[in-house]
TrEMBL record:
It is found in: Cell membrane; Membrane. This is Protein translocase subunit SecY. The central subunit of the protein translocation channel SecYEG. Consists of two halves formed by TMs 1-5 and 6-10. These two domains form a lateral gate at the front which open onto the bilayer between TMs 2 and 7, and are clamped together by SecE at the back. The channel is closed by both a pore ring composed of hydrophobic SecY resides and a short helix (helix 2A) on the extracellular side of the membrane which forms a plug. The plug probably moves laterally to allow the channel to open. The ring and the pore may move independently. The chain crosses the membrane at residues 18-38, 58-77, 117-136, 148-165, 172-193, 205-225, 264-283, 303-323, 361-379, 385-405. Belongs to the SecY/SEC61-alpha family. Keywords: Cell membrane, Membrane, Protein transport, Translocation, Transmembrane, Transmembrane helix, Transport. HAMAP family: SecY (MF_01465). Component of the Sec protein translocase complex. Heterotrimer consisting of SecY, SecE and SecG subunits. The heterotrimers can form oligomers, although 1 heterotrimer is thought to be able to translocate proteins. Interacts with the ribosome. Interacts with SecDF, and other proteins may be involved. Interacts with SecA. GO terms for cellular component: plasma membrane. GO terms for biological process: intracellular protein transmembrane transport; protein targeting; protein transport by the Sec complex. Its main location: membrane. PANTHER family: SECY/SEC61-ALPHA FAMILY MEMBER (PTHR10906). It comes from Anaerococcus hydrogenalis DSM 7454. It comes from the Bacteria.
């Protein structure tokens, strides 16, 4: 990985993409430290104290602490992620949206436009929920005009962060939205280390607990890399055919089926869905109660949260893989090109076989993601270590790094091909 980064830094075009990405992330971090107008910092801090340990605290971690200080980027990219989930669901159940996915770049732009509209709607809903629910008591003295300004700033901040994420994907390095979430998580590491240092000083935390947690984190990193890189190779044989005086085909190849084909997306999607009940509770003015009580540090709330999160990861892993690995389309293309899986008839039997293998592989990957999310959370609870980032956050960080490095490697490969063709 370090060798790849070193070679990438030597390429001027890729280096410019690095600089662009860093500038965008710097703007994001600066915005996360700029509070919206007409707020009282002390009242906000007092109101947020009751949120610690709930799902709101987890959402605050994903935004890099912007929710606790009510910064202009307090909503982060969560509305955009939720809108993306809804649009992907619609492409499965609505034929018109399914047709758009097959129209290439034009269809993708149309879907992206609808996603932005839905992002605005969700941002409006969440902004009102925050100003009237989460911080309703702290902002009770604000005039209607002041609250309107606050909501407009929050919505504008979300759209700006969304634009930054899309622009990083287009002109920078990696998936922009994932990179922004990655940056929000990383920003919490100094806070965690400071908390541990204070705990050691006052003997509320032992070195043994920190050592065990470090081992757990290393295990997560190693296992995540193995799961991300693991794949099942399905053999494919192409029949020989004569075209004119030349013979084509006859070679053997394989279809690589990734164990974790969806990467970190199931975890990110699960986080976005888990934000919905919290937002509803905030909108109803029940910041500490309502649906939020089921996602708290209490024993029953902690268990419910882990179970729901694991279930959602399983669902989204299957859903995301179903979209990416279209077995019917694969079987059709193989048949058209004279390819077949040894021992399996072309057509529907091939499609069924690919689906069966894909489901088994997806189950292993989904269970692995769920376990990697639950184990660190349980370790943190039993060891008594207050983590500002959870196990799912470590998986997101590792997954984003791996995906970004792969994209950089692809850029270097393309650069080498261009250089070879220009010779």
């Amino acid at each position: 990985m370090l060798d790849t980064l070193k070679r990438a830094w030597g390429e001027e075009e890729i280096r410019k993409k690095f600089y662009f990405t860093l500038v965008m992330l710097l703007i994001y971090r600066l915005g996360n430290n700029i509070p919206i107008p007409f707020i009282d910092a002390q009242k906000l801090a007092a109101a947020y104290k009751g949120m610690e340990g709930t799902l709101v605290d987890y959402l605050n971690m994903l935004t890099g602490g912007g929710l606790s200080t009510l910064s202009i980027f307090a909503l982060g990219v969560q509305p955009y992620i939720t809108a993306s989930i809804v649009m992907q669901l619609l492409t499965v159940v609505i034929p018109r949206f399914e047709e758009l996915t097959k129209e290439g770049e034009a269809g993708r732009k149309t879907i992206q436009k609808y996603t932005r509209y839905m992002t605005i709607f969700l941002a409006i809903f969440q902004a009102i929920a925050i100003t009237n629910g989460l911080y309703g008591a702290a902002l009770s003295s604000a005039t209607p005009f002041q609250k309107l300004v606050m909501n407009v700033v929050l919505i504008g901040g979300t759209m700006l962060v969304t634009w930054m994420g899309e622009t990083i994907t287009e002109k920078g390095i990696g998936n922009g939205v994932s990179i922004i979430i990655f940056m929000g998580i990383i920003a919490n590491v100094p806070k965690t280390l400071k908390t541990w240092k204070t705990g050691l000083h006052y003997n509320t935390i032992s070195w043994l607990s920190i050592l065990v947690m470090a081992i757990v984190v290393i295990f997560i990193v190693v296992f995540t890399v193995r799961i991300t890189e693991g794949e099942r190779k399905i053999p494919v044989q192409y029949a020989k055919r004569v075209v004119g005086r030349k013979m084509y085909g006859g070679q053997s190849t394989h279809i690589p089926v990734k164990v974790n084909m969806s990467g970190v997306m199931p975890i990110i999607f699960a986080s976005a869905v888990l934000a919905i009940p919290s937002t509803i509770s905030l909108f109803m003015g029940r910041a500490n109660g309502g649906l939020n009580q089921f996602f708290s540090k209490s024993t029953h709330g902690f268990i419910i949260y882990l179970v729901v999160q694991a279930a959602l990861i399983l669902v989204f892993a299957y859903f995301y893989n179903m979209i990416q690995f279209n077995t019917v389309e694969y079987a059709k293309q193989l048949q058209q090109n004279g390819g077949f899986v040894p021992g399996i008839r072309p057509g529907k039997p091939t499609s069924d076989y690919l689906a069966k293998v894909g489901n088994k592989i997806t189950f292993i990957g989904a269970i692995s993601l769920a376990l990697l999310t639950i184990v660190p959370a349980l370790s943190s609870r039993f060891l008594g270590l207050n983590l500002s980032f959870g196990g799912s956050s470590v998986i997101i960080v590792v997954g984003v790094i791996l995906e970004t490095v792969k994209q950089i490697e692809a850029m270097l490969t393309m650069k080498n091909y261009k250089g070879f063709l220009n010779r």
